[in-house]
Write a structure and sequence with these properties.
Number of domains: 1
CATH topology: TIM Barrel
Radius of gyration: 21 Å
Structural class: alpha/beta
CATH superfamily: Glycosidases
Number of helices: 16
Strand order of the largest sheet: 1-2-3-4-5-7-13-14
Largest sheet: 8 strands, parallel, barrel
Helix content: 25-40%
Distance between the termini: 8 Å
Number of strands: 16
Length: 490
């Protein structure tokens, strides 16, 4: 059956997305220090609906990670060995026709603990080599500065992002990489999914919940994210100063929430839930806190310390574009406790009876992407960039070595159609980088068997395998999509 053709803009940035901590491996090579990601354990038997079990961590577990050299238990330590194999992977991305590739810089490759006066040259050289190899192949780097890769030393000794000094340490890192990669990187992102601070605080802000009084945890998290907002604004300031013409984006998990029905209380609940999600981008786009957050702090006696000039910093150094991840939508219901639940990368929620569900319990909603694009653009009037979207699945290697992933092709076809429809409706979309364009270690459970890529990597959940790369059927399909600038989705 034919599909509707949409006109994507000239220069649309087709590509793919990765994160250094999920693909690089080489976790303790060439002077790299430990990051929070190196403490993430392989969790094969966790209930998908138990969000805390997937993402939670204790102080004892952090100590165990520090005393272990295991790469089987700590899957992000092995990744897919991108650190040593990136040239071959870039060749495959070039063959697909990538215009851009989203990567991240591991802070701990540049400053292993975050405190060093001088950067680690081997780390700087690795990323310079990577970016030069990308540019050589006509692939524009899209670089995330803080993608769940905080130095573990700062989490242990500076309470993660809670202490004000961490802002200066992060800005030192930013200035270092801006100066080094001035002629190589035009597009940057500050904090990956900055709204995830309450969902998994250790991963996002280096906070281990059991180290703090429960009654103070909410206030601590708000202080951490305020410090990240200030750091984001300052990073934007120095990027514009050091690399004229470069662009900085914020990055949000778009947790689009529908009301269960048109009951006024469900409508209001969904409205407020969406507004809580917008808050994280609002500050980076508009440069000020929304009043409902300040009122909430006052009602709940939450004290967030602002440094001298913070309000001016936020107001004067807003981002150039808004990027976001999109995987699924949620449903808000005043009767949620009585309803069937589903899970996902966001949290558990009420099941939407109109949507299909993946084998990991994520609801598939391509129309929601069109909705999210229109909604975000109407709110911010800034260019949008979809920097994560994808389908995790257990791929089957056939006897002849092929991987027939028609389910992935159909998923992407529907979501790219939704992007085209939003563009036709007037939304300014810069580009699209599907998540895990090559198989990599999953964020929450450190699995390899949950595969996203157009390229198969021969590694199992324990890091065993040849690490050989193999094209899936979706590889050639996405290659055709890019070659036709989104015109041929059949």
């Amino acid at each position: 059956m034919g599909v509707k053709q949409y006109q994507f803009p000239e220069g649309f940035l087709w590509g793919g997305a990765t994160a250094a901590n999920q693909c690089e491996g080489a976790w303790n090579e060439d002077g790299k220090g430990m990051s929070v990601a190196d403490c993430s354990t392989y969790k094969p038997n966790v209930d998908p609906k138990d969000y805390v079990a997937q993402h939670g961590i204790t102080g004892k577990q952090v100590e165990e990670a520090m005393n272990s050299d295991s790469t089987e238990l700590y899957g992000k330590r092995h990744g897919i060995d991108f650190y040593h194999r990136y040239e071959g992977d870039l060749d495959l991305f070039q063959e697909m026709g990538f215009k851009t590739l989203r990567v991240s810089i591991q802070w701990t490759r540049i400053y292993p603990t975050g405190l060093e006066e001088e950067p680690n040259e081997k780390g700087l050289q690795f990323y310079e080599n990577l970016f030069r190899a990308m540019k050589k192949r006509g692939i524009e780097p899209l670089v995330t500065l803080h993608h769940y890769e905080m130095p573990l030393y700062l989490a242990n000794h500076y309470d993660g992002w809670y202490r004000r000094e961490v802002i200066d340490l992060f800005i030192k890192f930013c200035k270092t990489v801006f100066a080094r990669y001035k002629g190589l990187v035009k597009y940057w992102l500050t904090f990956n999914e900055i709204d995830s601070v309450f969902r998994h605080p250790f991963t996002t802000i280096g906070i281990v919940p059991d180290r703090y009084p429960k009654e103070k945890l909410e206030e601590i998290i708000y202080q951490c994210v305020h410090n990240q907002f200030v750091a984001s604004a300052l990073a934007t300031k120095y990027l514009h100063q050091l690399i004229p013409g470069a662009q900085m984006g914020c990055m949000l998990t778009r947790t689009l929430t529908y009301p269960e029905n048109c009951h006024p209380q469900n409508m209001l609940l969904a409205l407020k839930t969406n507004r809580e999600n917008f808050y994280y981008a609002d500050i980076q786009v508009f440069g000020e806190y929304p009043r409902h957050i300040l009122n909430d702090w006052k009602r709940n006696n939450i004290q967030v310390e602002f440094g001298p000039g913070d309000e001016e910093i936020l107001k004067c150094h807003t981002v150039d574009f808004v990027s976001f991840s999109y995987y699924m939508t949620m449903v808000a219901s005043i009767d949620a406790e009585k309803k069937e639940k589903v899970c996902g990368n966001l949290a558990t929620g009420v099941k939407n009876p109109y949507l299909d569900v993946t084998e990991w319990g994520w609801q598939v909603d391509p129309t929601g992407l069109q909705y999210a694009l229109i909604d975000l653009y109407d709110r911010y009037r800034k260019p949008l960039f979809i920097v994560e979207n994808g389908l995790g699945s257990k791929d089957q290697v056939e006897a002849d070595g092929s991987i027939i992933d028609d389910y992935r092709i159909e998923y992407f076809r529907q979501h790219i159609e939704a992007i085209g429809a939003a563009i036709e409706d007037g939304v300014d979309v810069m580009g699209y980088t599907p998540w895990g364009c090559i198989d990599l270690v999953s964020m929450s459970t450190c699995q390899m068997s949950k595969r996203y890529g157009f390229i198969y990597v021969d590694v199992d959940d324990l890091g065993h395998g040849t690490y050989e790369r193999r094209k899936k059927k979706s590889f050639d399909w996405y290659k055709k999509v890019i070659a036709t600038n989104g015109a041929d989705l059949d």
